[in-house]
Amino acid sequence: MNRPLYARRTNSWEKTMKKFEDPIVEEVHQTRTRLLEKYGGSEGYAEHLRQLEIELADRLESRQPRPPVRTPRKVS
């Protein structure tokens, strides 16, 4: 007999995820596609964001980084 020497890997999510449809995820994908088409790809969209940062610089706020939390060291 010609039987494989291994068992096929199965995943419990395989059957579930094939039927799974999420309207929010679908909307995110559609929005991403529209933006990439509008700005000519990811580079064009990145350039658009850089221009927005320049235009809205007076409205953007930068925070100082928080200092690290110091905890007592345990020596074992």
What does this structure look like?
The chain is mostly helical. It has a domain at 21-57. It contains three helices and no strands. It has helices at residues 12-19, 23-39, 42-55. It starts with 11 loop residues before the first helix and ends in a 21-residue tail after the last helix. The model has no long low-confidence stretch (mean pLDDT 85).
The radius of gyration computed from the alpha-carbon positions, rounded to a whole number of angstroms, is: 25 Å
Helix content: 40-55%
The helix count comes to 3
Shape: flat
Summarize this structure as a short list of keywords or feature phrases.
51% helix; flat; single chain
Which SSEs are present, and which pair or pack?
Layout: H1 12-19, H2 23-39, H3 42-55
Helix pairs in contact: 2-3
In short:
The chain has helices at 12-19, 23-39, 42-55. The protein has 76 residues and is an all-alpha fold.
